Amino acid sequence: MSLTIDKLSVGYGAVDVLHDVDLEVPSGSIVALVGRNGAGKSTLMRTVAGLMKPRSGEVTLEGRRLTARRPAAVVRSGVVLVPEGRQIFAKLTVEENLRMGCFVSVRGPAAEARRAEMYELFPILGERRHHPGGSLSGGQQQMLAIARALLANPRLLLMDEPFLGLAPGVIVEVRNVIADIRERGTSVLLVEQSVQAALATADSAYLLSSGRIVASGRADQMLNDASLRKTMLGTST
Ligand SMILES: Nc1ncnc2c1ncn2[C@@H]1O[C@H](COP(=O)(O)OP(=O)(O)OP(=O)(O)O)[C@@H](O)[C@H]1O
């Protein structure tokens, strides 16, 4: 499902954070939005998810406006956010966390079938279904946050810093999960400070700096562009 962000400007009170941002997630693709701490990445994700209202500009999904919709309506239209910091319920079990994830979109036997699918997709969650969410490792918590989002059967998954705080080996596992999600027909928009991991995962990418898109293109080309590498990573090697 394709997402178009057109001249989006968003702010908090008197402070403008995003300025005229244009971004496209073509159907069936993985797009990365990279940028430093405070560039406005989470603000963009929250706006697409319907949690913030833009000052101006539009977000459309397959040509239909998302901007005026409430968060639950955005979820029902097929756009689901995996929030920064996972936001799982530490004291609830894995199963209870997944039950919470179902309730906006699916209920009853359909919800149970969806949870069973998630345990197949993430066997470690099945093994730990009666353990509190807070007892899981960082990587397992990320899997739980992703599984909870997938329960709503998204056509577009928004992932806010999916690699944050994860060990390199676990980042590879999460990257494989993201590739698998795309194989199943769900488009992915991910925002990351970890430029290398994000660009290695994505088809195309945008660089956000102080709320403005300053570069965009194919992810592999951006990663190989020496001057862009310098801007993004602070290195030319
Ligand atoms: N609730 C808020 N009220 C006021 N300003 C905010 C609020 N949330 C974020 N900001 C400001 O908006 C700017 C962009 O923040 P945002 O969280 O979108 O950046 P980010 O690129 O996601 O960074 P990070 O990786 O740290 O989350 C920052 O200057 C931040 O201080």
From TrEMBL:
Matches recorded under SUPFAM superfamilies: P-loop containing nucleoside triphosphate hydrolases
GO molecular function, one term: ATP binding
Keywords noted in UniProt: Amino-acid transport, ATP-binding, Nucleotide-binding, Transport
Entries under Pfam families matching the protein: ABC_tran
Entry superkingdom: Bacteria
GO biological process assignments: L-amino acid transport
CDD domains associated with the record: ABC_TM1139_LivF_branched (cd03224)
SMART domains: AAA
Domain ABC transporter residues, every copy: 3-235
Gene3D superfamilies in the record: P-loop containing nucleotide triphosphate hydrolases (3.40.50.300)
Family recorded in the similarity comment: Belongs to the ABC transporter superfamily.
PANTHER family given in the database record: HIGH-AFFINITY BRANCHED-CHAIN AMINO ACID TRANSPORT ATP-BINDING PROTEIN LIVF
The name this protein goes by in its record: ATP-binding cassette domain-containing protein
Species this chain originates from: Actinomadura physcomitrii
